[in-house]
Amino acid sequence: AITVNSSEVDDSIGILVDGAEDFVLTNNTINYTGNSDGSAVNNAIRLEDADGAVIEDNIINISIPSVPVTYLPPDWDATVLSEGIVVDTSDDVVLSNNTINVDYNKVTGAYDSVYAVEFVDSDNAVINDNEITTNGNSYAYGLTLNGENFTVEGNNITTTGNNYANGIQINGPASGNVSDNNIDAEAPSVVYPVYSYGKNVVTYTDNNISGTSNSVYAMELFGTNETVKDNNIVANGNFTIGVASKSKNLVLENNTIIANGTNKGTPTTGDSIKSETTGVKAVAGSTAITNNTIISTGDSAVKTEASGYIANNTLVANDTTGDAAV
Asked: Tens digits of per-residue pLDDT, 135-168?
């Protein structure tokens, strides 16, 4: 086994690969404990300029503090200090068949965050058949992606938090396919099992996507061209939206979407798409909604201000069906 324990004040990276191509990390047990006081970097594994790396068949146990994301001059870009696995500016990386467990061990500062796996500016990533389990405090993120032509397939991604939980977040510009995954997020205040924003061209197929919280956005899509086809999408809680969209062009086809909300209490989110209970809520862009089964405990199955069309769906809302549920 590889075991690393960090100090409180020094940057700590368990395994750093910088500028080396075709690195392979396979069949290891890795135990990493970060103890940062919020001023130092804690990463279990970090790849930088490491094209062609393969991380496969490992058991990776990561315990790190939940600390605030910092924004530093001159560009004021976000700097995430506490992360499990980071792939930065590294193309053609494979992350396959790993068991990745990330848990927070202490809390420092306000708006504290934990990120399990992040790909930044890395093209042609293949992320398949992994178990990615994340437990955070205020803000917990499972898999975060930025890059072109990615493949996310066959993973079990589970994120829990004490306030906010996110399963997969895709930060544009990005393109790729998300297929055959089980994605679940649970937290008291708000969850986003799938969240996409920016210049994204992404297809989501054959996934099981679920969220449980006071306010649930099972999929929130703010991309350029996004296709959601043959998925099972379930939102459970008080204010639940199956698919919330500002995507410029969105296709929803042959999905089962269930928004199971009680509509009791007060929404706990400042999201620009108002929290309520409905199967699909599109507030901008163009949306084609065809051949879906959409069931909502709210007053509508579909609410849309977008252009486009709704055809050949089975729609059920509270006391209404069919066209009356729109």
From this structure: 999 999 999 999 999 999 999 999 999 999 999 9
Contact 301, 324 (CB under 8 A): no
Q: How far is it, in rounded angstroms, from Cα 281 to Cα 286? A: 12
C-alpha 168/C-alpha 134 separation (Å) is 11
Q: CA torsion 155→156→161→166, rounded to 10°?
A: 40
Half-sphere exposure in the Cβ direction for 161 (13 Å, CA): 31
Q: What is the pTM of this model?
A: 0.95
Q: Is 53 helix (H, G, I), strand (E, B) or coil?
A: coil
> Residue 294: which pLDDT band, with cuts at 50, 70 and 90?
very high
Dig out the tokens for 127 from the structure. Answer: 């992320």
What was the pLDDT predicted at 293? 97
Q: Identify the helix (H) or strand (E) that includes residue 190.
A: strand 190-197
Q: Which of 173, 164, 124 is nearest to 268 (CA)?
A: 164
Distance CA 225, CA 272 (A): 20
d(CA 191, CA 169): 11
d(CA 168, CA 299): 29
| Contact call for residues 33 and 6 (beta carbons, < 8 A) | yes
Q: What is the pLDDT of residues 114-127, one digit of tens each?
A: 999 999 999 999 99
The phi and psi torsions of 323 (rounded to 5 degrees) equal: -60, -30
Matching residue, tokens 């979407």:
257
Tell me the chain's radius of gyration from C-alpha atoms. 20
Residue pointed to by tokens 């990776």: 60
CA distance 131 to 46: 19
Task: Give the C-alpha distances (Å, rounded to integers) separating 173 from 123, 167, 199, 201.
Answer: 11, 19, 5, 8
Question: Amino acid identity, residue 18?
Answer: D
What single-letter amino acid sits at 169? Q
Q: Is 165 in contact with 185 (CB distance < 8 Å)?
A: yes
Cα 321 versus chain centre, distance: 32
User: What's residue 323's pLDDT?
Assistant: 56
Most distant CA pair in the chain, distance: 61
